[in-house]
Automatic annotation (TrEMBL):
Keywords from the named record: Oxidoreductase
Record's protein name: SDR family NAD(P)-dependent oxidoreductase
Keyword Oxidoreductase on entry: yes
Lipid biosynthesis keyword on record: no
Similarity annotation: Belongs to the short-chain dehydrogenases/reductases (SDR) family.
InterPro entries assigned to the protein according to its UniProt record, in alphabetical order: NAD(P)-bd_dom_sf (IPR036291), Sc_DH/Rdtase_CS (IPR020904), SDR_fam (IPR002347)
Length: 260
């Protein structure tokens, strides 16, 4: 797919981090970008800077996502590109014993479901609704109508202690990549997923420097945290390369996460 001013794109989680970098990279190619995010102030700022449109969207709500796509399409036309970066995380052991008093507790099922709803169901909700819209487009080269990039995590394959819910949510994204690509193959819509390692996102920037240094040292090569622009570069490659389909790709400096 050639990325230029004839293309419209939606980036979920586009107000910061990996999503922001991707929104900026798409806009630099001339693409008309709509940002879906709950961070209104940041989202409006990024959208203004890239000449895009901001849509305040909660990916766990059908109504909110529908309203976001309606606003984005009214401004930019039907998107042929979707990049899903919206997501969050939490950490707690499945069951654990208190060191202080020996009391036992287990992972809150409410917290588990909350994470699944955002990271997995929220991603699928946006993919399904965007794909339905892409089906209305006329086919281009090789019959292509669209390209979708989802975001998982290396935790999908080597989750750490306390990451049962997070790993399940991201493993679900990996697991549905090929089936969705197969669902949409007859309509010319490609689907791929990126599994980022440890990236220098706003969430990580708030960590103590020693913690960041230790994490960087654990990466085989290069010994640093990933940059959001490197995620964006891979996302654009997946979109532009017409033979890239049904793949899950780690972007992690060859790291394999230890138990803790």
């Amino acid at each position: 797919m050639k990325l230029d001013s004839t293309i419209a794109a939606v980036v979920t989680g586009g107000a910061s981090g990996l999503g922001e970098a991707t929104a900026r990279a798409l806009a630099a190619k001339g693409v008309k970008v709509a940002i879906f995010d709950l961070q209104a102030e940041k989202g409006e700022k990024v959208a203004a800077e890239i000449g895009g449109v901001f849509c305040e969207v909660n990916v766990t709500s059908d109504e909110s996502v529908d309203a976001g796509f309606a606003k984005a399409r009214a401004a930019n036309g039907q998107e042929s590109v979707l990049v899903c970066c919206a997501g969050t995380g939490n950490a707690m052991k499945t069951a654990s014993r208190s060191k202080e008093d020996g009391s036992i507790k287990h992972f809150s099922l409410e917290a588990f479901n909350w994470l699944i709803q955002i990271n997995l169901v929220g991603t699928f909700r946006c993919v399904a609704k965007s794909a339905a819209g892409m089906l209305t487009l006329d086919p281009g080269v090789d019959g292509e109508r669209g390209a979708i990039v989802m975001t998982a995590s290396v935790a999908a394959e080597d989750g750490q202690i306390g990451q049962a819910a997070y790993s399940a949510s991201k493993g679900g994204v990996v697991g549905m990549t090929l089936p969705i690509a197969r669902d949409l193959m007859g309509e010319g819509i490609r689907v791929n997923t990126i599994l980022p390692g440890i990236f220098n996102t706003p969430l990580m920037q708030g960590a103590p420097q020693q913690v960041k240094d230790n994490l960087a040292a654990s990466v085989p090569f290069p010994k640093r945290l990933g940059n959001a622009s490197e995620y964006a570069n891979l996302a654009l490659t997946m979109i532009e390369n017409g033979y890239f389909n049904g793949e899950d790709v780690r972007l992690d400096g060859a790291i394999r996460m230890a138990p803790r």
